[in-house]
Automatic annotation (TrEMBL):
It comes from Streptomyces poonensis. Belongs to the glycosyl hydrolase 13 family. Residues 20-409 form the Glycosyl hydrolase family 13 catalytic domain. This is Alpha-glucosidase. GO terms for biological process: oligosaccharide catabolic process. CDD domains: AmyAc_OligoGlu_TS. Pfam families: Alpha-amylase. It comes from the Bacteria. Transmembrane segments: none annotated. GO terms for molecular function: alpha-amylase activity.
Length: 534
């Protein structure tokens, strides 16, 4: 294990490109149909060639996988489906030798119902110290037959489950994910120990799931959707927790990125004060439609939200919860909202691909860090999962109306002509791959200079080599309607055409990269972006 290092001023995270690995679907090393750490280790050269600075792993811990690993039974054990703790330590070290840092995922709001703490709480009964680690309450009604309150679920359905002795326990997600009581000192101590455990194994950072949900109003009052303040989102006491976490991270030179879904910009920025989290995900940009006015507003609002606390923005087009960019940008409604996801929504994938290529250059030219979800660099579309193969609890808890998130979690295609497209030796991966995915395979795209993979590789190479990218100022340039153009330092200019007509480019010395070919007269086609050196 690595010894703690003194506090460092290394701020690599301010402009890093961080690749998100969903371990079940990245690469299968042992041939059982499920991605694993052996598969990731074998593909580390691919990530190095791609040019990313760090890799964020969604949970790889022991888990029943009711919610894709976000139901954790033991934070100090790797799930056997993925490998062992020794393999994780080797992976962290091998990645670092290639210049790639590792970020792990922590889920502090809840644990699995298989976690030893929760099993002990069920066995101990009402009024026991074991139950104080969770939110157990008697029910309402004449015989306690009604739940303690009517809080809405993050996954639809109820937020309370009754146990045989009559008490109810809180779960903002599924019943298999009981919420922890963060007012209890043992809960805080356990998570501080978990942070140290992983920092001592060489991780560079921690992504915090559902970061604004930990602290609840102790009275557990009733709540109407949209009421402010919420009794379970963004409670003021949460900041003391993150200040104590930041002190631990500083001991190891580690960083945090929080999943913070908040509409209030001022309250969002509080999580990014210098003694709390380093960064937080930017959902304003993630959910924004392919619209020039709204994209510019999202960029401006993001930079303005971060400026008061001096934190860098993060930019992301897709993740393991969100419809793939190629599909989303090919639809009539190019925004993203969980509430509007439905089966059978048509998409023009050619249009979506052009826009996704342009969006890649837009995103990588913005100030701050970028998160790249696995498969986005291949231009993967959302996959249609047969009803009998869907595993995501969001689908089942919606009564079957929500298609769930499995469509963006399908195993990656590595080799066009291999079984399971080279994902592994199993004929059938844990989620089915579409029959036409050979064209997206890494080996086929690697030999095509016009592929999405070639575009990302060139963009990341330029982003690292050319001055002007990364953290720093952004200045908008005057343009016609439907055109976004901005200048960074050292003469770097990014222009994106979201209009319905070709656009003239500003004067420039050199064309660094284009998401698609220019017209013969030098104008920029619709749904195309360029990087220029002016």
């Amino acid at each position: 294990m690595a010894a703690p290092t003194p506090h460092r001023t290394d701020d690599w995270w301010r402009d890093a490109v961080i690749y998100q690995v969903y371990p079940r679907s990245f690469a299968d090393g042992d041939g059982d149909g499920t991605g694993d750490l052996a598969g990731v280790r074998a593909r580390l050269p691919y990530l190095a060639q791609l040019g990313v600075d760090a890799v964020w792993f969604t949970p790889w811990y022991l888990s029943p996988l009711v919610d894709g690993g976000y139901d954790v039974a033991d934070y100090r054990t790797i799930d056997p489906a993925f490998g062992t703790l020794a393999e994780a330590e080797k992976l962290i070290a091998e990645a670092r030798e290639l210049g790639i840092r590792t970020i792990v995922d922590i889920v502090p709001n809840h644990v699995s119902d298989r976690h030893p703490w929760f099993r002990a709480a069920l066995a101990a009964g009402p009024g026991s110290p074991e139950r104080e680690l969770f939110h157990f309450r008697p029910g309402r009604g004449e015989n306690g037959e009604l739940p303690p309150n009517a809080w809405p679920s993050q996954f639809a359905g109820t937020t309370w489950t009754r146990v045989p002795d009559g008490e109810w326990y809180l779960h903002l997600f599924t019943p298999e994910q009981p919420d922890l009581n963060w007012a209890h000192p043992a809960v805080r101590q356990e998570h501080e120990d978990i942070l140290r455990f992983w920092f001592e194994r060489g991780v560079a950072g921690v992504r915090i799931d559902s970061a604004a949900l930990l602290v609840k109003d102790p009275a557990l009052p009733d709540f109407e959707e949209g009421a402010d303040p919420s009794p379970f989102i963004d409670q003021d006491g949460i900041h003391d927790i993150y200040r104590s976490w930041r002190a631990i991270a500083d001991e190891y030179g580690g960083v945090f990125v929080g999943e913070v879904w908040l509409p209030d910009a001022e309250r969002f920025a509080r999580y990014l004060r210098p003694d709390e989290l380093h960064t937080a995900f930017n959902f304003t940009f993630l959910t924004c439609p392919w619209d020039p006015g709204r994209l510019r507003r999202a960029i401006d609002d993001t930079l303005a939200d971060h400026a008061p606390v001096g934190a860098p923005a993060t930019w992301v087009l897709c993740n393991h919860d969100v419809t793939r960019t190629v599909t989303r940008y090919g639809r009539a409604d190019t925004a993203f909202d969980f509430a509007t996801k439905r089966f059978g929504t048509p998409a023009d994938l050619d249009l979506g691909t052009r826009r996704a290529r342009a969006a890649a250059l837009l995103t990588l030219a913005l100030p701050g860090s970028v998160y790249l979800y696995q498969g986005e660099e291949l231009g993967l579309p959302e996959a249609d999962i047969p009803l009998d193969r869907i595993q995501d609890p969001m689908h089942f808890r919606s009564g079957g109306t929500d298609p769930g998130r499995d469509g963006c979690r399908v195993p990656l295609p590595w080799e066009a002509d291999a079984p399971a497209y080279g994902f592994g030796t199993a004929a059938e991966p844990w989620l089915p791959q579409p029959a036409d995915w050979a064209r997206y395979a890494v080996d086929r795209q690697s030999g095509d200079p016009d592929s999405m993979l070639a575009l990302y590789r060139e963009a990341l190479l330029l982003r690292r080599a050319e001055p002007g990218f990364g953290d720093g100022p952004l200045t908008w340039l005057p343009t016609e309607n439907g055109i976004l153009a901005f200048r960074r330092t050292h003469g770097l200019v990014c222009v994106v055409n979201l209009s319905d007509a070709p656009a003239a480019l500003p004067p420039y010395e050199r064309l660094l990269l284009a998401s698609g070919p220019l017209h013969a007269d030098g104008t920029l086609p619709e749904d195309t972006a360029v990087w220029l050196r002016a």
